[in-house]
Amino acid sequence: MKRTPIIATLVLLFSLFTGFAYAEPAVVNINTADVATLASLNGIGQSKAEAIVAYREANGPFQSPEELANVKGIGSRTVEKNADRLAIK
Question: Which residues does UniProt assign to the signal peptide (predicted)?
């Protein structure tokens, strides 16, 4: 009994699934993103995402991603971890 088709199928399925693990995360526009989208950022949960939206409504749009550190509860380390995903378009 030949096992080549079974092994080939398993290798193909494994390569498809591992390919998704290396997909680039989406860029988040911090001036227009909703709470759910902001909560997808590393180190940002529901309450911090709500604080970002409240800060944005009170102070206007962010001029740079680094300004995100002005939001209470968000430090420069969190901004650094998410630097490649933050945009202000």
Answer: 1-23
Per CATH, is 28-87 categorized as 3.40.50.300? Answer: no
Each of the 89 residues of the chain gets a pLDDT tens digit; together they read 566 788 878 777 777 776 665 566 789 999 999 999 999 999 999 999 999 999 999 999 999 999 999 999 999 999 999 999 999 98
pTM of the entire structure?
0.73
Torsion from C-alpha of 82, 83, 85, 86, nearest 10 degrees: 110
| Structure tokens given for 6 | 């079974």
